[in-house]
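Researcher: Hi, I'm a grad student and pretty new to this. My advisor asked me to get structures for two proteins we've been looking at. I'm not sure of the right format, so I'll just paste the first sequence and hope you can take it from there.
Model: That works fine. Here's the first sequence with its structure tokens right after it:
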Amino acid sequence: MTTEAAPSRFAGELRRWRGLRHWSQLDLAIAADTTQRYLSFLERGRSRPGREMVVRLAESLGLTLRERNALLLSAGYAPAFDESSLDAPQLEPVRTALRSVLDGHLPYPAVIVSRLGSLIDANAAFGLFTEGCAPELCRPPLNVRRLALHPEGMAKRVLNLPEWGRHVTEAMRSRLRISPDPQAEELLAELEGYLPRSEPGPGYLGFAVPLRLRREGSSGGELCLITTLTTFATATDISLAELHLEAFLPADEATATYLRDRQIRQTPAG
């Protein structure tokens, strides 16, 4: 049965998300196990969807938990997912597990960041990245993206800044194409303003670009690191779902040896 309804914000949001995915009405109808006719009624505001249908459409569109809540609200329904404070008691097991992962990654750097790049936690090796950086970039709330690309941050030590920096910003832009976010777009514009203009050379790769970092100190030298990214794919809490664990690994034996020796030097005797 079709229920006539006044055009709602939901209709516009549904059209917007389908357009961002470059899907036809038929594509989405098949993915959500409904009919193109019914989907057309929803997008014109002629029908009001049930809560289950909104959830199904959101899942089919691959929306984040935050975006699913927003779509439910636009249809007049309560959010389905909680957004806990990261220091909430129910997340204590998660915090403990993450700390174990961070410490277990030593002597190599690893960080946990929010969706906008704010530092949530880091292991002791993270100090490798703050060496020589302006103090104001290292104060809370520390944003690791800004720290990495700001001229007074890591950028002055990154030997392949044009390539590596573009890799960082292009990864952000790719996420924005899937999940638009005004705050993230503002940060991206800031970060792109820090990068030198350059055209990728013939050896440039759009993925797995190593971080080539000049070592601080009189010995000089170069470190070469690659990055791995881990997310909580099965999280049902927004705060947890939006966390990213970024772990850095040595791309050569010289880097691995330096980081191992660095940890030994910084570990208190006894």
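Researcher: Oh nice, that was easy. Here's the second one.
Model: And its structure:
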Amino acid sequence: MTLPEIDNDILKVILISILILIGGFVASIWLFQILKKILKKYKNPAFKRIASIIQYPFKVLVLLVALNFVRVHLQSSILIEGSNFGQLFYILFLTVITWLAISVVKAVKAVIIANYDVGIEDNLKARKIHTQIKVFERIAVVLIVFFTIAMALLSFEAIRQVGVSLLASAGIAGIIIGFAAQKSISMLLAGFQLAITQPIRLDDVVIVEGEWGKVEEITLTFVVVAIWDKRRLVLPVTYFIDTPFQNWTRQTSEILGTVFIYVDYGFPVERLREFMTQSLSENPYWDGKVNVLQVTDCTEKSMELRALASAKDSGTAWDLRVKLREDLIEFIRINYPDYLPQNRLKMEEPKS
């Protein structure tokens, strides 16, 4: 074979490689143009986001396939020798496929949760779906990354040899690792259990550690509760499996607000009932369902009156209670000041 013939072969390979790269780039753009046209037919805006979420990893994957064809042609023409490039392309393929798989998971999540708006009043089902999907997304991403790292490491001969040599002591190593990672494994399992059984959901109102707050974030290992005064309480997921806590929105967001008033025994309770009905009718936080005033206890000094009123959610119930308490106290102060709680003293005449 003469030198010019070799030059011609090399030139052919280079031209073919360039054509493959250009073809891969054009093919990736063309495929996504078709995908965008298909997704435009759907009214759901989440479908339009699918292309933007997965387009970059898909385009990189197509270009990587084209580059691999170029590598094969160059190696066959003795321009590149050795298996190092093959190993490099294998790692790159794993990385891009992982990127694409994670993007697909995120696209599926976006499509599902787009149908469930947590901003509406009756958002119980929406919060349930959001909680499950977000936890499952994190589980899927962790598993994808774990298997990618495992496959990448096993591609190295030295690491495979180490793995084979460790099989003999796998039982002992497994026991040691099991004890060392006991808490981490239990947290991951608790996070999975939390997503399935859902004792809590995103935006649930809970009482934990004596604090009132809303569930702001749920991960595989911890839960963030936003306290009413802007603090954040971070708890391990195992807390909500092992420890009793209050969930005010487990079945519904509606809740009863309670106000306690203490008055003297001679106080006319019926008059306060009438006023409470009038007060609630003008209260913007009342949902119009529950309106009850009862004598719930009595002591040697006073009667205990409990006022119950309903609201659409816990945040509104707080405002309802505050306003109702102010109104009841003001009514008693103005109309029946003599019937506020009093201390009675019995004066005895001295014996002669």
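Researcher: Is there anything I should tell my advisor about the second?
Model: You could mention this: The chain is about 60% helix and 15% strand.
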